[in-house]
Write a structure and sequence with these properties.
Helices cover about 70% and strands about 0% of the residues. By secondary structure, it is mostly helical.
Length: about 350
């Protein structure tokens, strides 16, 4: 952590932006990601420190303003006037930095969700940046291939620079069946974008539940928690419509890398909402860093659900039923055991 602070101070005092500034941010994101998911508490604490340093550096260096300006420079009309190799390299560095920023917010949501760590940032709603480019561009093996792909895209600008994060987030808060039916064609979102968006929903749910929970005012709490359920169930319906649109062309046996495998976190969000609705809200909110073990157990079982290809409606109905049946249990946190029982009942191969 001292090395990160020292490098950050030295670069800030130099007065000239270089690629080393971008590299430090990306390296810090990778470091905190590895540390936060480590089994050692000391390493997890190091990851928290790295995350705090990361947002201090990004704020002091005005990273979001820089990324905004840089993104404008990567639009088609600007790229056409530049040497193709130089333009490709410049665009790739901008895209890499945007993806690092997304990963930083995702990790911040994970720390709040799993470790009850207060966010270091002001919240994603206070920052504006674009989400990811078309995957074909990111996978291009040469400058010529990269240029050919974006020039023939339906929307070259959107393919190159992605959807603005605030625009994407606002769509999740809109209502109405007519709007939901038009969502998939309105935005050009990719699996990694939706991975980011589901983590922002997870964070917002827990933040709002913490603020809404007032043991001394049960009636007000009940009203606030009911409103939370309505708002976020609707947001999840929109998210699922976007997810289906973004993944409909993928083969059935496609194995998504971690940052594109958002579906387990969609179901985790559903489970958390049910835990808040049927379970001990105070227990879930005040578990502290022990919550990581509950979240990990839920995710393991959710992934088994998904791999088993059980009908989704049946899967969700049983999840809700399990939540309600064990709401009055005195267990440490009974949903974990309930899901384990259900999985073993459904498919005996899960015991192997």
């Amino acid at each position: 952590m001292k090395a990160i602070r020292s490098m950050g101070s030295n670069m800030a005092s130099s007065g000239e932006w270089t690629s080393k500034h971008d590299d430090l941010i990306i390296a810090t994101v990778l470091l905190q990601f590895l540390c936060i998911h480590h089994e050692s508490r000391a390493m997890r604490n190091m990851g928290k420190s790295a995350h705090d340093q990361l947002f201090q550096i990004m704020d002091s260096w005005q990273i979001f303003e820089r990324v905004k300006t840089w993104t404008q420079r990567c639009r088609p009309e600007a790229l056409n006037a530049r040497d193709v190799d130089e333009a490709w390299t410049d665009w790739a560095r901008c895209e890499s930095l945007r993806r690092a920023i997304m990963a930083a917010f995702i990790e911040e949501g994970c720390m709040l969700c799993c470790l009850s760590v207060a966010p270091s940032s002001r919240g994603h709603a206070d920052y504006e940046f674009n989400l990811t480019c078309d995957d074909a561009l990111w996978q291009a093996r040469s400058a010529a291939e990269w240029r050919r792909i974006w020039r023939t895209a339906r929307s070259p600008s959107m393919a190159l620079t992605g959807t603005p994060s605030q625009l994407a987030s606002r769509q999740l808060s809109r209502r109405g069946a007519l709007f939901e039916s038009r969502v998939p064609t309105a935005l050009n979102l990719h699996p990694m974008d939706l991975f980011y968006l589901i983590h922002t929903l997870l964070r917002e749910i827990l933040e709002r539940a913490s603020v809404s929970w007032r043991p001394d005012a049960p009636e007000e709490t009940a009203v606030a928690m009911a409103a939370l359920q309505v708002d976020f169930r609707a947001a999840l319906n929109i998210w699922m419509a976007l997810w289906k649109s973004a993944t409909e062309s993928l083969p059935a046996d496609y194995q998504a890398p971690f940052f594109k495998n958002a579906l387990p976190f969609y179901w985790l969000t559903q489970v958390i909402l049910s835990a808040l609705q049927y379970g001990d809200v105070l227990h879930l909110i005040e578990m502290g860093d022990k919550r990581v073990f509950v979240m990990d157990a839920w995710l393991q079982r959710i992934r088994l659900f998904i791999r088993s290809r059980i009908n989704r409606e049946e899967m969700w109905a049983e999840m809700a039923s399990v939540c309600q049946r064990i709401a009055d249990s005195d267990d440490h946190f009974p949903l974990v055991g309930g899901f384990a029982t259900f999985l073993l009942d459904k498919d005996p191969t899960f015991t192997n």
